[in-house]
């Protein structure tokens, strides 16, 4: 979103216009390459194989743990259940066994005690940190109410976490602390015990990683520690999590399914779980590749692909929804979002970088009302862009009308108008050399983040009945997601300190409103508020807004918030996608996972 290099570009072979361009690298995904993709996993035999494996997993692993523990008595019955559910959810195959998982978790929840902690087995009263932390995480992620108070038993009189010596049963301190760290990642606002847990566990894991730095062949557990410590939960979107979990689990199947030194599942079942996850990943990937071909063909035939003043990132946009809303039935939503992403990026880079204020006054009016009479007032490049935007918008609107009827157009238009007005407000501030206060900036930040538009439009492309008051229901969730995404983006831009940036960021406004604030203090403020908004978003997603369809919440949480956190996790991986994000796309969308390492 930054203005960068200056350039004088000739228009209409007549007028020289002094413009600023972003100097972005071109599209890195050639159409010939994408159209050449071919996957054997489209064959129906692979789906049949997955179904067969799932049935065997249910019969030999899930169903024995189904309901009453007396059907399969074990001293580790609670830990086994939490561990298995966590594993299949990380691997992305839980959707095949939703009823079985619900029954398993209902059984564990009957034995949950927020005051005394949880043991590894329902017949044991000794609180176990690993089981408690893993159970807390699994239950909270699946919508059960669990309190941070459950961890008080593992703290001393001063509220500091204390590790007990390893027990005779083979309690693994590193595994316990890793489970505690993962649990603390999904804390809610005001949970001070979870903050303390994360701080304690983080120090322990960092020390462990430092001590193991020179180890060439790391154990599966150490590999997991590296993964979870180096990639925050907010950026571990579902497909990325599945890909990495497959790589980790396949390193040592025996270690993966070894619970407290007791092997509860045969090697055959472990292999079946892993094989089902790999096949499922590859089958979904084959579907995603077909959608990439559709998007690439659309892009190649578009009228704006020759304009190099905006970022050509249709594949990168598609990655966001393919990682978050990945199932077959959401194909229209994924393809629509990729097209929408091109639209909002074109608009953003025209308003934010390339257009002059005089041009943008007319462009704004033409876009808000789709006013054809205004097109003649636009320069040639804007006329081409307007035509492209209008055609794509109407294409999406037609699809929305087929699903929800003509009343949905009003929802779309209101959000669209807010986006254009917010983009123009940013440019007007720049043109007038006006620096907004933090309050002024934040009032405009939600709409200028583009989050409302790029979440609502894809939601409307989901073939399901939506409540008439859906906009009201998603408003708070949408606000928290938008603010978190805006701050993540602003922090990265602020850190990079691009020399030609003219846009004010959240942190620039904060520094001006608080004279004497250093860059380091501003960044600390930003990171603190990212964490606070993440906790708000997490709570909204898991606990509140029960009347919002789950797939709609996934659009906000997995497809938008986690995609932004993922693609900006190190640098601005959207503006610069030549290396890191390109490699991620190759893993998730291009290269199938081999069945055997």
Structure description:
- This protein is mainly α.
- It has 2 domains: 309 residues, Farnesyl Diphosphate Synthase; 216 residues, Terpene synthase, N-terminal domain (Glycosyltransferase, Alpha/alpha barrel).
- The chain has 23 helices and 4 strands.
- The strands form 2 sheets. The chain has a two-stranded antiparallel sheet with strand order 1-2. A two-stranded antiparallel ribbon has the order 3-4.
- A hairpin with a 2-residue loop joins strand 3 and strand 4.
- Helix 12 crosses helix 23 and helix 19 runs antiparallel to helix 21.
List the keywords.
single chain; 597 residues; mainly alpha; Farnesyl Diphosphate Synthase; 2 domains; two-stranded antiparallel sheet; 61% helix
Q: Number of domains in the coordinates?
A: 2
Compressed to H and E, one letter per element, the order equals: EEHHHHHHHHHHEEHHHHHHHHHHHHH
Please write the CATH class name of the largest domain. Mainly Alpha
Low-confidence segments, ≥5 residues, pLDDT <50? 1-14, 167-171
Shape summary: globular
Largest sheet: 2 strands, antiparallel
Placed side by side, the strands forming the largest sheet appear as: 1-2
Strand content: under 5%
CATH domain fold name of the largest domain: Farnesyl Diphosphate Synthase
Mean pLDDT: 89
Please tally the helical runs, counting DSSP H or I stretches of 4 or more residues: 23
Q: Kindly state the number of beta strands.
A: 4
- The rounded Rg comes to 26 Å
CATH architecture of the largest domain: Orthogonal Bundle
Class of secondary structure makeup = mainly alpha
The N- and C-terminal alpha carbons lie at a distance of 41 Å
Percent range of helical residues: 55-70%
Mind telling me the CATH superfamily name of the largest domain? Answer: Farnesyl Diphosphate Synthase
């Amino acid at each position: 979103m930054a203005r960068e290099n200056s350039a004088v570009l000739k228009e209409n072979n007549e007028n020289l216009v002094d413009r600023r361009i972003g100097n972005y690298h071109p599209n890195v995904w050639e159409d010939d390459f994408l159209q050449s993709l071919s996957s054997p996993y489209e064959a129906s035999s692979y789906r049949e194989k997955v179904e067969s494996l799932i049935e065997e997993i249910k019969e030999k692993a899930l169903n024995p743990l189904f309901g009453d523990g007396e059907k399969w008595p074990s001293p580790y019955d609670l830990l086994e259940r939490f561990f298995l559910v966590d594993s299949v959810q990380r691997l992305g195959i839980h959707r095949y066994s939703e009823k079985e998982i619900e029954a398993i978790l209902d059984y564990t929840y009957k034995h949950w005690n927020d005051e005394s902690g949880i043991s590894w087995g329902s017949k044991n009263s000794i609180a176990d940190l690993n089981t408690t932390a893993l159970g807390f995480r699994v239950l909270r992620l699946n919508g059960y109410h669990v309190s941070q108070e459950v961890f008080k038993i593992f703290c001393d009189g001063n509220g500091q976490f204390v590790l007990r010596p390893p027990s005779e049963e083979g309690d693994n301190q590193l595994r316990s602390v890793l489970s505690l760290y993962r649990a603390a990642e999904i804390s809610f606002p005001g949970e001070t015990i979870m903050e303390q847990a994360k701080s304690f566990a983080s120090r322990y894991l960092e020390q462990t990683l430092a001590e193991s730095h020179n180890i060439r062949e790391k154990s599966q557990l150490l590999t997991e520690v590296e993964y979870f410590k180096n990639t925050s939960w907010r950026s571990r979107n579902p497909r990325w999590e599945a890909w990495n979990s497959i790589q980790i689990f396949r390193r040592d199947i025996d270690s993966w399914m070894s619970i407290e030194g007791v092997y509860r599942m045969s090697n055959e079942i472990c292999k079946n779980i892993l094989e089902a996850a790999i096949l499922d990943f590859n089958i979904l990937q084959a579907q995603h590749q077909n959608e990439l071909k559709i998007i690439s063909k659309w892009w190649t035939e578009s009228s704006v692909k020759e304009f190099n003043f905006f970022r050509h990132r249709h594949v990168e946009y598609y990655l966001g929804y393919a990682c978050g809303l990945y199932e077959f039935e959401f194909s229209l939503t994924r393809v629509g979002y990729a097209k929408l992403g091109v639209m909002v990026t074109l608009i953003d880079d025209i308003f934010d970088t390339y257009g002059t204020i005089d041009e943008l006054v007319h462009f704004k009016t033409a876009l808000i009302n789709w006013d054809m009479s205004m097109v003649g007032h636009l320069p040639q490049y804007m006329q081409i862009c307007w035509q492209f935007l209008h055609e794509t918008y109407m294409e999406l609107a037609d699809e929305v009308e087929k699903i929800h009827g003509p009343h949905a157009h009003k929802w779309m238009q209101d959000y669209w108008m807010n986006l254009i007005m917010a983009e123009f407000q940013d440019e007007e501030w720049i043109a007038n050399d006006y620096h907004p206060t933090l309050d002024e900036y934040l009032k405009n930040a939600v709409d200028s983040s583009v989050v409302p538009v790029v979440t609502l439009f894809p939601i409307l492309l989901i073939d399901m009945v939506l409540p008439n008051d859906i906009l009201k229901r998603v408003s708070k969730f949408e606000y928290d997601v938008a603010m978190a995404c805006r701050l993540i983006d602003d922090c990265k831009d602020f850190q990079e300190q691009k020399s030609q940036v003219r846009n004010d960021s959240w942190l620039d406004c904060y520094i001006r409103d608080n004279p004497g604030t250093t860059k380091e203090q501003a960044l600390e403020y930003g990171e603190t508020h990212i964490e606070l908004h993440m906790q708000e978003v997490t709570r909204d997603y898991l606990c509140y807004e029960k009347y919002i369809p789950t797939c709609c919440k996934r659009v906000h949480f997995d497809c938008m918030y986690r995609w932004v956190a993922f693609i900006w996790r190190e640098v601005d991986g959207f503006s610069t996608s030549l290396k890191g994000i390109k490699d991620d796309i190759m893993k998730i969308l291009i290269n199938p996972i081999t069945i055997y390492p």
